[in-house]
């Protein structure tokens, strides 16, 4: 629920506020002011740690060596380490990493996270639990906005921008988006403004060349939507949210690499 307020603002400042209106991400003067207030409040609270969640269960089918995809090395550093450092860069220092039966490969390598300046909590999943079902374990642990990311891809997204976008547009969920020439390999979306109106999981229909970049910001109420451990975000939750325009899409043109073949590693190493 929103309340009306009256503000007196200098004309030159008001002109700067009006220049933010693009009718897409910022729809009106009041929306611009609200967006700036969220940014300001987030700056005030910058010392308060945000919570980041990494799902690190995808198996390595690309190289010999590690059992888990996120432990594939790029420039002699596991992909997961890049993701941890991305979170650290944006003051997301409390991390929860979901593991499977091969999770010791991760916990033995990273330990508590102290060497990277973060605090890592590990949660082990039983076999057969899907991505949405995994998050059910957070119900008694999280009661504020949180970030969820796949651990097996590389991304340079600006988390501060995405965070402020999420807060100012007030949705239960925001999905990071990027574009690709081979959308059939990923979950694809159709947009209505900033709202995702259709989500198609990979290996089904192709909605467009806009795809999920595997990073999301959720409100804690998101956990109430998940009914059981057999539900997946891509197959069950996101398509339903899209039908009711309850999930927003945040478009980023920063780098995003999802390594599907061994030969890609050398290419990515040169570009990072």
C-alpha Rg (nearest Å) = 19 Å
Average residue pLDDT:
89
CATH homologous superfamily (4th level) name of the largest domain = Spore Coat Polysaccharide Biosynthesis Protein SpsA, Chain A
Determine the N-to-C terminus distance. Answer: 44 Å
- How many individual helices? 9
Portion of residues in beta strands equals: 15-25%
Q: Can you offer a commentary on this structure?
A:
The chain is of the alpha/beta class. It is 31% helix and 23% strand. The strands form 4 sheets. A 7-stranded mixed β-sheet has the order 5-4-1-6-11-8-12.
Key attributes of the depicted protein:
single chain, 272 residues, alpha/beta, Spore Coat Polysaccharide Biosynthesis Protein SpsA, Chain A, 2 domains, 7-stranded mixed sheet, two-stranded antiparallel ribbon, 9 helices, 13 strands
What layout of secondary structure does this protein have?
Blueprint: H1 11-18, H2 29-44, E1 51-55, E2 73-74, E3 77-78, H3 79-89, E4 94-99, H4 104-110, E5 119-124, H5 131-135, E6 146-150, E7 154-155, H6 159-169, E8 173-179, E9 188-192, E10 195-200, E11 210-218, H7 222-225, H8 233-243, E12 247-251, E13 256-257, H9 262-271
Parallel strand pairs: 1-4, 1-6, 4-5, 8-12
Antiparallel strand pairs: 2-3, 6-11, 7-13, 8-11, 9-10
Helix pairs in contact: 2-6
């Amino acid at each position: 629920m929103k309340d009306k307020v009256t503000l007196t603002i200098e004309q030159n400042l008001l002109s700067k506020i009006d220049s933010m209106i693009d009718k897409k991400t910022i729809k009106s003067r009041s929306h611009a002011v609200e967006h700036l207030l969220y940014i300001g409040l987030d700056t005030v609270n910058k010392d308060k740690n945000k919570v980041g969640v990494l799902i690190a269960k995808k198996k390595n089918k690309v190289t010999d060596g590690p059992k888990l995809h996120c432990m594939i090395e790029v420039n002699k550093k596991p992909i997961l380490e890049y993701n941890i450092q991305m979170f650290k860069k944006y003051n997301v220092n409390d991390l929860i990493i979901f593991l499977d039966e091969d999770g010791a490969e991760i916990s033995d390598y990273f330990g508590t996270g102290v060497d990277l300046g973060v605090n890592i909590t590990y949660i082990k999943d039983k076999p057969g639990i899907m991505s949405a079902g995994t998050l059910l374990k957070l119900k008694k642990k999280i009661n504020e906005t949180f970030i969820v990311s796949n651990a097996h891809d590389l991304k340079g997204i600006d988390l501060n921008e995405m965070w402020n976008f999420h807060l100012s547009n007030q949705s239960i969920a925001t999905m990071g988006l990027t574009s690709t020439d081979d959308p059939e390999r990923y979950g694809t979306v159709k947009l209505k403004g900033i709202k995702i109106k259709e989500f198609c999981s990979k290996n089904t229909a192709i909605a467009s060349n806009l795809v999920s970049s595997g990073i999301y910001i959720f409100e804690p109420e998101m956990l109430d939507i998940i009914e059981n451990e057999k539900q997946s975000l891509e197959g069950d939750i996101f398509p339903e949210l899209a039908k009711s325009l309850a999930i927003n899409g945040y478009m980023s043109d920063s780098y995003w690499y999802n390594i599907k073949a061994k030969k890609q590693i050398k290419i990515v190493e040169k570009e990072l």
